[in-house]
Design brief:
The structure holds 2 protein chains of 2 kinds. Helices cover about 10% and strands about 50% of the residues of chain A. Chain A is mostly beta strands. Chain A has a single domain, classed as Porin (Beta Barrel). In chain A, the strands form 3 sheets. In chain A, strands 1-2-3-4-5-6-7-10-11-14-15-16-17-18-19-20 form a 16-stranded antiparallel barrel. Chain A has a two-stranded antiparallel ribbon with strand order 8-9. In chain A, β16 and β17 form a beta hairpin. Chain A is globular and about 60 Å long. Chain A starts with a helix and ends with a strand. By secondary structure, chain B is mostly beta strands. Chain B folds into 2 domains: about 130 residues, Immunoglobulin-like; about 90 residues, Cupredoxins -  blue copper proteins (Immunoglobulin-like). In chain B, the strands form 5 sheets. Chain B has a 5-stranded mixed beta sheet with strand order 6-12-11-8-9, with no helix packed on it. Chain B has a 4-stranded antiparallel beta sheet with strand order 13-2-15-16, with no helix packed on it. In chain B, strands 14-1-17 form a 3-stranded mixed beta sheet, with no helix packed on it. Classes of the chains: A mainly beta, B mainly beta. Chains A and B meet through loops of A and β9 of B.
Amino acid sequence: MGQLLKHPARSSCAARCLLALCAALATAAQAADWELDVDARLLTSEGGKSFLEAGLGTVRYGEDQSGLRLGRARATISQQLGEVWTLHIDASAWGDEDKSPVGVTEAYLQYRPYPFSGYRLRVKAGAFYAPISLENRASGWESPYTLSSSAINTWLGEELRTIGLEAQLDWLGTRTGHAFDLGLTGAVYGWNEPAGVVLATDGFTLHDRQTPLFGRVGRGGYEPLEPFRQIDGRAGYYGGLEARYLDRVVFRALHYDNRADPSAYDAVSQVMAWRTKFDSAGLRFESGNGWTAVVQWLNGDTYIAPGDLQLEWPFNARFALLSKRIGRHMLSARYDKFLVATGKGNPEGDGAQSGHAWTAAYLFQLNPQWRFTLEWLRVVSSSFNRGEILGTAGVATQTQLQLAVRCALGSSIQ
Amino acid sequence: MRLPARHPDTATASHSAWEPAKLRLRLMGLVAALSQAGAVFAATIAITVQEPGGHPLAGTVITLHPLAGQSQPAPAVHAVMDQLSRAFEPDVLVIPVGSTVAFPNSDSVSHQIYSFSPTKRFQLPLYRGTPYPPVRFDQAGVVTLGCNIHDDMVAFLLVTDAPFYGRTDATGSWSAEVPRGRYRVSIWHPRLRDEAAGFERELTIDDTDRATLTLRLAKSLQPARIEGRPHSWDSY
């Protein structure tokens, strides 16, 4: 809001958009599905200085942030517009210093024609998550298993958002006498060209904060950066496939390439375009007696070529999660392993990071409204930048213990 | 299974051909059967369906088609397929051809019901409550129902032209009073594998008052849908 007040033209435009949106929502409020959540944390952290405060901590809260914190306050609305269109908006406050106290994490219009002859088409336009994570499956792109996401999915929440158009075509085998469903997804997008810079600076982290659209993400030792920018005018793409066995097994694979021009540079904002490509794959298995197993793998590289330089950072991460749901209780454990290497043009190892993490969580869902989660997270990592930029020890063990109390209200929470 | 009060248990119970209301419908078949097979008397047919390990299989749809003479479908019914807590209730409904089914939405959220099955294609645009008249099903076959907003919602309608039909109880059993004669016994269950392989047997009831048939599946069923998983887990 502060930023809006500083820019009257933008403020007026935003106010008009907001009024138009409110008017549209009010006329059709009968059919809207909505949800409001507040997630408060009591925590203790030995996590170094947080990445949100130019530190190189690998967990969300720095050691100076122990105590009572806001985890997330969230409002979401899904509004049917006519017969086959849906407008979805997800806005959150994270209790930290971004450009605005409340930011939108997803906002898109979805076209959902009726399935025909066993096929279903879905088209999204706006800003949303690519279908990669098998962990962040709950409303608000939250993980229902732990508070902190895995290293892979934390990075997706920090730096990646599809701001563009995505189409998904599913073959609904389970509706036509078969045991499998298959889906293909393709997207074109823009405004994601700095994606990769945080990985090459902070490395992988494990937390649940998602960067709001056009919001900021911290960089160790530097000013925060805005990952949602368009610099060279080139569109990125991804293509993925999904296979499901009944409601038990999901496999996803995706190739992502933001097609950024690695030599492009925005002199005004001093932001560079980072050419980021990766492949990802994941498998989620669920049993009928409450067990869930998730594995995900990500492998790629990010590349810049300012002037005569050519700098490359290959990266790789994977995790395995095991969870058991017993009535209203759920126990989960996860092991993460991650690496940011230094490739050509960067022999000194600037930005290199490697490490692993253990996460254990106990969740108690008292009723549809109230949920309590206790999570212990330990990250052991080695970071070149900790010594080089911050002058601290390169190898660090960071531990965070959080108790979260979450209250949810909504049209389908009863 | 929820049914209108004026038709108690019509859709689940077996049909006897000798109830007064059905007499007229049965008459032609009865005369034909009498002329071909001589004396026709009612007998009890009891069918049990088991999984490969011998466990009883509840909820299996059983239909009986007479192999001799003319066969009329069972009388049409007015059935209800409700929507409660983002699920269809019941998840399987068996109805004679010509029946109608109402699709009330008892949830606080809107649903958008569709079928793309060749047996009956239809759509009920976005609604809550009961704004639409019941849908009539005139062709025999399986109709798969879905909700275009909540992709995890699924249910099945089995529309049958058989004069006798029902579903097995918790002991895997179903029985009915039927005229003596030869029958084709068919079973259907949404979790059966290899539907095309067919699950049919012929059965002759001649000089006995009670015929029993036990059908044991050769292949195990597909796993049941996972229960108790929050709907919000299907958001992405």
